[in-house]
Amino acid sequence: MAEQETSRTSHQARNNAPNRSQSEGQGSASRSRGGSGGGRRRGRGGRNRGQRQDDSAQVPEGRGNAPQTGPADATIAAQTIAAPESSGFSRGRRNWRGNRGGSRGQGNQGRGVFSMGPQRTFGGRLTTTDQPTEIAQDASLSANAPEFVPGQPVSQRSAQQHPSSTPQPTGQGRSRNRTRNRNQDRPRQEVPKSTASELWQRIQEDIANWNYECRICTEEVTRKTEVWSCTTCWTVVHLECAHQWWDTSMKVNEESGDKSWRCPGCNSTLIEGPGDSSCWCGKETQPSRNSILPPHSCGQTCSKPRSTCSHPCTLQCHPGPCPPCTHSQRKNCRDTDYYNGWSCRERCGDFLPCGQHECPQTCHPGVCGTCEVPVEAKCYCGRVQKEMLCSKQEDIRDSFDLASNSWFEGSFSCESACGRTFDCGVHRCQISCHPQEEVSAHCPFSPDVVTHCPCGKTPLKELMDEPRQTCENNVPHCERICEKKLECGHLCQSLCHTGECDPCTQTMEIDCRCGRVMGETICHEGNVQHPLCFKICQATRNCGRHRCGEHCCPGEKKASQRIAQQKKQRLGPDLLPVEAEHICVAVCGRPLKCGSHFCEQLCHRGACQSCPEAIWEEVSCNCGQTVLHPPQPCGTRQPSCTNQCQRQTACGHPSVDHQCHPDDVSCPPCTYLVQKRCICGKTTFHNKPCHLQEAHCGEQCGQKLSCGLHTCKKLCHRPGECGDAQNGCEQICGKPKLLCNHPCQSVCHGQTPCKESTACQVKMSTSCACGNHKQSFKCLASTSNPTPSRPDIRCDEECERLDRNRRLAAALNIDPASHTNDHIPFSDNTLKLYKQMQSWGDAQESQFRVFAANKDEVRLRYEPMKNQSRQFLHLLAEDFGFESKSEDYDIHRSVLVWKSDKFVSAPTKTLAQCVKIRATQAAEAAAAAAIRPPSPPILETEPFNALVLTEPRFGLTIEEVNAALEPDLTSLQGFRFKVDFLNEEVLIKASVSYSAFLTPAPMEKSLEILKPRIEQTIRREKLAESVLLCHSDANGAISRREVTIRAGTGGWSAVAGRAASRPMSSSSTPAPEEAKPGRKLLLGLKKKRPQQPEGGKVWAALDGDVEC
């Protein structure tokens, strides 16, 4: 190993020192065989076989004894070095290799350069002897560009102002900051734009004639510039301009994170970036610039698939859309191969990736694959020559054969040691098979190469008295530590030595695979193998169905961070990417909707996709008159058929007429009337439908049970299904007990005597002497306690009061049972609120009466409730004689009720009774008003307090009305609006907080101001036909509305309309509160005037909570 290392070091020193000056004096003819440093490219996906290992800027050493070239050859060499690609090495169907003959080293021509007449010279590219005298200035934008002055010529920038003129590394075959010299090779004669019928022909001809303009920079698109084409509008722009456009117009979707940009030609949205330079069909990157081929074309068949048929494009690689298919092949549907597509059955003939051989396969989809043609190949050192597949060859490199003193091409390495002697004639090269040079390499052990000890820290002149004379002299070692960097990153701790360093023995900390456990171990020498801990990963995989379950999972920490981020940001399970360790690779396996196949995709979230299989049979309805022809998706149900069903009923009766239906849907039941007998056999029914399986008479069975004491109480049933059929008689015994004579409450025990040892649980009741107070208790008689104690109830003050009332009624000759009065102990506001929530009001009244009857309870606290409910409790407490107040704020506000000194007893009448009495009084008043002549109407009208939308749109909802009118309704400060449907109209009723302090006139004036805005909105949104002002009573009925005066109407029609819109007179009686909206009101009764609130009781007029 020391000899190899020293040999390699000596060879590098020799190439860097003495041969540098010699290589600088060589002409361009001695650069390489092809005339370009890049070598020869081969077809689609070919390899750079002539590319050298070192891509440095120095010129390699020539192989011939050619003298120095003249200025013309130097110019050709400069062009060869500057050109990134050579037109002589096209990727087309021809392999431009040139003559590999014996012109090497003869005359003043370099190897691989041939003269073909006095006008042209073929080297690394096609050139002419006439060179441009001026170098075109950079046309790209620059910050130090001279100022443009209108009317004056544009000043040229000097060479110092063009830093881009210096050669820049190409990087991945494309330089976005490369200078484009677009004025070079411009045709001397102006050619008009193409008028070809096809778009791809016009694009090719315009680019070739310098008539195609870039949409971004407005400069010409030529065959030497890298281009990009849109797949939607087929606009062609410079690739550099497309990348700049992509950088400036790219947008990122905030929800999905996808990037998109706009096409500079058609402004359509694109997802993929411009990418690298390629030919029109995309088979080759960095296509050839050969003038024989169309611009930016690889010369191969386009072969792009068509969406309308299975035939690919047969034209040569071209821009723009592919022309329509010209094949006229016609096949039957049953002969169509839906999986493999159509094939012309001809030989493919496309070039393989090697660029030398054609594809021998029959017309096939996809790529042609690797080249399997056998060729004769020779290794780099020239010792092994064998036949191998073309695709198995490595890069073709030029190598020198010492035996025949000639050059040859090597294409693989035989992996054996080179064995060629260095220039010293003593040592041999130990490197594996590699390309050979014509001159032997310098010995790596020579004194001019080895100047330090093996560790490189001490010069040899400090270790030796006399310098080394030959390469065979030993190299002394110093006493220092080697400290060479090992593969693991540590430094070698051995003393200065030759050969490989000893293995590293230092200790290091290493964590387990999941990163939770740390430990010390000997250095792994760069190959770190993390140990496994015993922790089992519980993270859920991306499918959401399975857990990881792996020991020491490396993705557990990432999973915990991902879950924490999801909880913190409240994200869904699919919004964050799942780590690779937790991607479920199991097959889903769930049944698909078709019911015949299972999901074969990887385990996933959500519902499975539709079944990809197809049905190749006809799918018909049951009657066979409606047919779906194949192919059909798997799981296709039977088609709907409008013909009559042809199935026959099982009973044989005529079937009900109905449409044809699938097999999983049963026919309608048979409705033919027949005679049936009930299942118990007691009754026979006539005219029962046939589909009725069992008929029941509904009578009790009545048969004696096995206990001999009870009869079956089950309704009509089948024989043998009586109550004791399974577990015996399960009825209550009912026999009288001997001690208390109460019926036995145990389960029937037959003829055995009842169990007297257990206490009797029958409930009994006792009362006081007057019968006012009663109390229930259990009997509890048993053999151990035959005479249990009974509660003793005596009369109290209440009994005395009732007795006094009875005696007083007897003295006044009044019958308390039949005596009634019309007194209502509740206020009108209480009854009004009670009618709005009767069921809830009955429950609260019952609770108040229980609270009033219990002398021990003093306070009654309610849960938080709404304002209207609290108001009802306050009014009801005042009617009962209780005290009440509201506590807390906002949604926690509740009501507290307590007894005070003014409480005597609960009202004798209930709220429901009072409502009935009030309704009876209203009916009597209405009947009396009908007898009296009506009073003349007064001119006072009820003010408008609502808006009504006439003829609303079909399907209109309250949410749509609120959303459309919200900006207009909120413009009135202090008003609240409630939207409701009234018959076939929409009512918008307005209300104001603390309405007792606001007169109706300002509300009507505010609605008149709001009406035009509402009218414009409903016409714009097409919500209704029109809007009118109206008055709505407490029940929501419209008692008066605005009359619309149309053009051309008048006379009695207008009088009748105004009369119909007038409200009831002041003498009219209001309709009963339970009357339905829209019913006409009766006239004749005077309207009650609202009572004015007394001083200090303004809160009574508020329409809200008294404590608010």
Automatic annotation (TrEMBL):
Keywords: Metal-binding, Nucleus, Repeat, Transcription, Transcription regulation, Zinc, Zinc-finger. It is found in: Nucleus. Residues 214-267 form the RING-type domain. Residues 182-191 have a biased composition (Basic and acidic residues). One of its GO terms (molecular function) is DNA-binding transcription factor activity, RNA polymerase II-specific. Residues 838-901 form the R3H domain. Its main location: nucleus. Transmembrane segments: none annotated. Residues 9-19, 153-174 have a biased composition (Polar residues). SUPFAM superfamilies: R3H domain, RING/U-box. InterPro entries: NFX1_fam (IPR034078), R3H_dom (IPR001374), R3H_dom_sf (IPR036867), Znf_NFX1 (IPR000967), Znf_RING (IPR001841). GO terms for biological process: negative regulation of transcription by RNA polymerase II. Residues 99-110 have a biased composition (Gly residues). Belongs to the NFX1 family. This is Related to cysteine-rich protein NFX-1. It comes from Fusarium mangiferae.
